[in-house]
Amino acid sequence: MWATSRRVSGLDAQFRAWQCQTPVEKVASSMVILVDDDADVLSSLRFAFEIEGYPVVTHTSAEALLSGQALPERGCLVVDHRLPGMSGLALVKHLREQGHTLPAILITTPSADVIARAAAEGVELIEKPLLCDALVGKVRDLIGAA
Q: What number of H helices and E strands is found in the chain?
């Protein structure tokens, strides 16, 4: 339990430091918000994005993200579609309805229905199994376009 408390505390400090940056620094260090219920996927993705220099915050469910800290002004959401409780696509739709405009990428093994719904919501889709280089490249493109 101690390690978990220490890790959460570290994420809070990282987020507070990010909030204090100037606009130019924010562009250079846009936050990646990962939501996936698979701890191994979260760990791998966190590592891939941190190697690229991005600050990363992880959540294991949509509800955890919604009950946590405020979303940053710049960054990108990377959300698994199949989450316990609220789905990833429902999470992005909810955030859009609340006025959040961060670009989002849905990661999943998609069906035709999910592809159509993601397109209707303006959400990028990356198919599983993930190729970290493709995902990091897409995040970089979306952050650069925002």
A: 7, 5
Of 47, 49, 38, 53, nearest to 128 by C-alpha is 38
| Contact yes or no for 110/67 (Cβ under 8 A) | no
Domains of the chain: 2-145 (3.40.50.2300)
Contacts of 14 (CB under 8 A, 6+ apart): 55, 57
Q: Nearest CA to 56 among 47, 67, 65, 64?
A: 47
Residues facing 75 on adjacent strands: 31
Distance CA 71, CA 73 (A): 7
* Full-model pTM: 0.76
pLDDT at residue 6 is higher than 80 = no
Helical (H) or strand (E) element with 107: strand 104-108
Backbone angles phi, psi at 75, to 5 degrees: 155, -160
